[in-house]
Design a protein that fits this description.
Distance between the termini: 80 Å
Structural class: mainly alpha
Order of helices and strands: HHHHHH
Strand content: under 5%
Shape: globular
Radius of gyration: 18 Å
Number of strands: 0
Helix content: 55-70%
Amino acid sequence: MRKTVLTAAVLFALAPQAMAAETGQSLYNDNCAACHQRTGVGIKGAFPALTGGKLVAGPLPVLVATVLNGRGGMPAFKSDLTDAQMAMVLTYIRVSWGNKATAVTTAQVSQARVKAQAVAKPKALLAH
């Protein structure tokens, strides 16, 4: 009986992590895989690989800003994904296909979103 309770407790504790990974993969497949491929290898000359990429494993604010605002032909996802969804998909790409970067939290995405919005606001026109 005790072994069953312990096993259930361990499974319950791991369930949110497993769900987050599965959701990150689903979000990736729905939003990113058409260009970057399900395997993260991209399409040479058109869409960069996410496997071993400097952007994926590099400074987190740069990665988040890129996904929020888009870059080149990449669409912006700032209106399409919540902070939690973005954290899940970014965690998925940072730990998949041999990538060994740290997980991304919702708070980190939220902070980067606030910074990106502050930079994106145009300065008021000043009368001369």
